[in-house]
Amino acid sequence: MVSAPNPISSLQSDPIEATASTSNTSETPSAFGGTFWRVFLSTFVTIFLAELGDKTQVATLLLSAQSRSPVVVFLGAGLALISTSLLGVLLGQWLAKRISPSTLDTCAGILLLLITIGLIGDIVGQ
């Protein structure tokens, strides 16, 4: 006699283990695989270049100069950047579970286009 799978037992299993067993290991970033380093370096370079000369960097520079406590400013700014990055990662994971990548790309493109139109409107209106 063949028994039906128990839905309760599948809910009690470890979600990380279940994800690992069903995911494609060639696409999953691993500590020793090339995918990890590609994602890591791509993220680092993108964020590093985007933050150069950003208002956050200018604010950090000014706070450091005014406070004469560069280590404290560095720790505060670093913690703030880590916190905002964590929020971005968590929101990204939440959205990825609910929206397809192509829809997410389209929404991001529309949002950036609207921001651009708003900035151009501000420049023209001055």
From TrEMBL:
<feature type="compositionally biased region" description="Low complexity">
    <location>
        <begin position="18"/>
        <end position="28"/>
    </location>
</feature>
<protein>
    <recommendedName>
        <fullName>GDT1 family protein</fullName>
    </recommendedName>
</protein>
<keyword id="KW-0812">Transmembrane</keyword>
<feature type="transmembrane region" description="Helical">
    <location>
        <begin position="71"/>
        <end position="96"/>
    </location>
</feature>
<dbReference type="Pfam" id="PF01169">
    <property type="entry name" value="GDT1"/>
</dbReference>
<feature type="transmembrane region" description="Helical">
    <location>
        <begin position="108"/>
        <end position="125"/>
    </location>
</feature>
<feature type="transmembrane region" description="Helical">
    <location>
        <begin position="31"/>
        <end position="50"/>
    </location>
</feature>
<dbReference type="InterPro" id="IPR001727">
    <property type="entry name" value="GDT1-like"/>
</dbReference>
<keyword id="KW-1133">Transmembrane helix</keyword>
<comment type="similarity">
    <text>Belongs to the GDT1 family.</text>
</comment>
<keyword id="KW-0472">Membrane</keyword>
<dbReference type="GO" id="GO:0016020">
    <property type="term" value="C:membrane"/>
</dbReference>
<feature type="region of interest" description="Disordered">
    <location>
        <begin position="1"/>
        <end position="28"/>
    </location>
</feature>
<feature type="compositionally biased region" description="Polar residues">
    <location>
        <begin position="1"/>
        <end position="13"/>
    </location>
</feature>
<dbReference type="GO" id="GO:0046873">
    <property type="term" value="F:metal ion transmembrane transporter activity"/>
</dbReference>
